[in-house]
């Protein structure tokens, strides 16, 4: 997921939980509602693509 999202201009990072696969989303700078919408669209695309495999 990291590379898929990174190739589309966003970055996520591994979470700190040891018992579960997680990721973190942080903000440095100014973001807008459109940024959040785009990130969720990219994540949805990724989940749909990996679900089909």
Instruction: State the major sheet.
Output: 2 strands, antiparallel
Q: Structural class, from secondary structure content?
A: mainly alpha
Run of helices and strands: HEEH
Chain-averaged pLDDT:
86
The domain tally reads 1
Number of strands: 2
Strand content: 5-15%
First-to-last CA distance: 14 Å
C-alpha-based Rg, rounded? 12 Å
Low-confidence segments, given as residue ranges, are none
Which geometry do the CA atoms define?
globular
The number of helices is 2
Kindly state the percentage of residues in helix: 40-55%
Walk across the major sheet and give the strand order: 1-2
Notable characteristics:
53 residues, 2 helices, 47% helix, globular
Overall description:
The protein has one domain (2-52). It has two helices and two strands. The protein has helices at residues 2-6, 33-52, and strands at residues 13-14, 23-24. The protein has a two-stranded antiparallel sheet. Strand 1 (13-14) and strand 2 form a beta hairpin. The chain starts with a helix and ends with a helix.
């Amino acid at each position: 997921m990291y590379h898929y999202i990174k190739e589309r201009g966003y970055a996520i990072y591994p979470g700190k939980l040891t018992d579960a696969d997680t990721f973190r989303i942080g903000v440095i700078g100014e973001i807008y509602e459109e940024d959040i919408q785009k990130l969720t669209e990219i994540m949805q695309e990724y989940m749909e693509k990996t679900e089909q495999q």
